[in-house]
Amino acid sequence: MHLVRSGDAAESSRAGWRHLVAFATIGLAACGGSDGTGPNGGGGPPVESVQLAGSTASIEVGETLQLTATAFDLDGNVLSGRTVTWTSTNQAVAAVNAAGLVVGQTTGSATINATAEGKSGSYGITVTPATIPTIASITPTTLVPGQPATITGEYFSVSAPNNIVTVAGTSAAVTAASATSLTFNVPTALCAPGSAAVIVTVNGRASNAVNQPAEIRGETVNIAVGQQQIIAQGNDPCLQFPATGNAEEYIIGVQYLSETVTNVESLNVGLAAAGTAGAVLLEPFSAASVPLFSTVDATRAERWRRHRQAEIEFRHRERAAIEPFMANLAASRARTGLHAAAAAAAIPNNLTVGATVAIRVPDRNGNLCNDFTEVTTTVKALGNRSVWLEDNANPAGGFTTAEYNTLAAQFDNTIWAVNTDYFGMPSDIDGDGRIAIVITKEVNKASVLGFTSTTDQIPRANCASSNGGEVYYGIAVDAGAQHGSAYEKSAALLDAPLLIAHEFTHIIQFAVRLGLGATSSQQLPAIWELEGQATLAEEVNGHAFAGRSPGSNFGFTFAFNCEDPPNCNNKPDPIDWYLGGFIDLVLYFGFETAQSKVAGAPEQCSWLNTPANGNSGPCLLEGREVYGVPWTLLRFISDQYGSQFAGGEAQLHRQLINGTTRGFANIERVIGVPMRTILARWAASLYADDRVPGLDSSLRLTSWNLNNIRNALVESAQLVPKSRSFSGFNESVLVRAGSTAYYRVSGTNRPAGSFRVRTSSGGLPSSLVQVWVVRSQ
After folding, report:
1. CA-angle at 465, arms to 461 and 470, nearest 5°
2. Please, are residues 410 and 504 in contact by the beta-carbon 8 Å criterion?
3. CA distance 165 to 52
4. For helices 648-657 and 628-641, angle between their N-to-C axes, nearest 10 degrees
5. CB-based burial of residue 365 (10 Å sphere; 0-12 exposed, 13-18 middle, 19+ buried)?
6. CB within 8 A of 360, min separation 6: which ones?
7. How far apart are CA 190 and CA 520, in angstroms?
8. pLDDT digits (tens, 9 = 90+) for 330-380
9. pTM for this prediction
10. Is 431 left (phi over 0), alpha (psi -120 to 50) or beta?
């Protein structure tokens, strides 16, 4: 007998139909007695009788029974291929479908008839009340994780696997079963608030819940408003909340600390309550809101989106291109970065304005070492720290001499000073103490705004595209769209300082690591470190240009460069120094449109790598994952730990580059604090900063007022935790490497409760899963 609960009847009907068709086709055709020439086969013997068969004459409400019909001729031979019509004398009691699948609807009796060629057979069915498994008692009195226990009651299945026992929402293995008794092992991962709800489910029917005293496990939450508690590595992720009559609210983070972006942890998260909670405290969103992209020039946003996406793809290809040369390059390079073999092919170090220079522009879409386009350039400006060269074949209408001089002064006086202070000195392969900035149409063709290539630091004898120096390739003004999308001079003048500040950081990062003797890409910073620091370079250069400084708790006006929301026609800065990082952050929070969020954000998204490298998260970052979100982590680290260094946060960042470790281990090496602690504090700050009264200083982002920024944006651009109450809940959640699932749990007159995290199968999760909690009210 095939028994399913009533909620599964439709699917069972479909399955039964497929089963019956197969059975009739194979079973009846295999029997003798038909030559295939009857009324249904072209002249064979007619049907004389029909017989029905089933495994039982009684089913319960909600159960199903599959009947089969067999047709016979006058001589008792089985006939195949005959059409059978099914009916019930009482569909309200026992319904039957065209495949002979009977479903018990209500108590009573009915007759099922099957008719073929006017001949019928019948089958009597009695539908009885559904038997619900019932728990009468449980021993021992106190459940102990890992120890056996026995349930006494009725209507259990005599087959142990058919009984599903859950203890505080966690599945327990049933080891012995009878109709009135079940023996099970109390889950070792039990997380209960002094008592655990035990439930037995048989054939989809759940018993009464019995709250049985249970040994308390986990950590008790005992923190003041604004404080954080973290469950450390190796502990059972179980939080115990004592009963209270007060109104309280907690932000809980379920965090996955893997560094491999393809890793996703499938978890079951729940809160078991000892009683019933009071009213749920729901926090209304701010009425003041700005649809995110009303603050952004759409053309510029799309231009930078394409650039970020293309740049990060290039970074991965660049690593592959330089890997074969790293060992020899490290061995032959002095700490200053001077490389005699490269110097022979370098840009001349005695250039003057008006001189012409042949420059090889690497083919971003080909082999970075072997494929290039050689262009003839003219020196347009010569600063103390930069030489500006313009491709002679660029479209007309490019930068004037005065504009080149202004750009050179911006680089020499601000960008060079800030970046070398924060990240260290670049190499000086060609010995002129300058960075070559080449403005060329070849960049326009590549659909990016600018780039650097570490292949320029490899000798030309090994890498034909190398210019043997420190080179930035910048996009040319192209108002007529001769070499790609139209690009106006006004946009170019505003983009150039931001782009150069970012890309100059990469020149320094690679030069320092190569100078330290890095012999493989595994000794270079992780991609998110490179781009997070380069995005931080945008921020600190923006401060320097405007006379501001970190640690000033700036709000929406500066973050989104908008003085008059929602129109944002007035800007405090001509350049959007900070905008890109914050756009990335709200996309990570799940922004989709002003009215909708991406499902599964941010926990199913990640900032550790890009979609092209295994990040299949749903957020709409499209290659921007490794920019703005890691920047907020590095900004948090700078705010929290920068003061511990004699040179402040700038020295902290120099130390991050000045080594051969990478990723989380690199940050731990410099800061001296476990990365799981840093990540827990940072993740909490993204929600709690300037929002939770009396917030612990270790959870603050002192450079930016995230609450002020949040209040100015629509709800879909905000970090919105899943709102739950202390009355209890149980749900599945996926958490991708580096990310956090946020829960806001609140209530008044709260009973004791246990918040626990388990694998989807009910076991303890990986040691890389941690839980933190911040009391927010």
Report:
1. 95
2. no
3. 37
4. 120
5. middle
6. 372, 373, 374, 464, 465, 466, 467
7. 46
8. 665 543 444 444 444 468 888 999 999 999 999 988 888 889 999 999 999
9. 0.79
10. left
